[in-house]
Design brief:
Length: 120
């Protein structure tokens, strides 16, 4: 018994040669300008350069504003630090004054006692 002969189905040809018989596959096409980015798509170089110039100006302004903000924050930190140092110095001086005044009072008390003994 011989197997029945089946005539081969001719394949559809394309410019690229063999074509897939799968219905869900889209035929590939050349890259179209619709796939390109907006900056590349425009035909005028001057337009693109103008857009880049505007973008650079905006970026420069943003950087400038950020630097001003950072400078203000730094200035506030320095003012706060100076106030803190001044308060610490004031507290230290008050403590030293209290200590010295206690010593002076003790010294005067001893001296007064001495005079009392002599005069008393």
């Amino acid at each position: 018994m011989s197997a029945p002969t089946v005539d081969p189905v001719p394949l559809a040809s394309s410019s690229g040669g063999r074509v897939s018989g799968k219905a869900w596959k889209q035929p590939k096409t050349a890259t179209q300008r619709s796939h390109l980015q907006a900056g590349v798509k425009t035909k005028k170089w001057e337009d693109r350069m103008e857009r880049e110039k505007a973008a650079k100006a905006i970026k420069k302004l943003e950087i400038e504003l950020k630097e001003e903000k950072q400078a203000e924050i730094q200035r506030r930190r320095e003012v706060t630090l100076e106030r803190k140092k001044a308060a610490e110095e004031k507290a230290h001086l008050a403590e030293m004054m209290a200590k010295m005044s206690a010593k002076k009072a003790l010294r005067l008390k001893r001296r007064a006692g001495r005079t009392k003994k002599i005069n008393g």
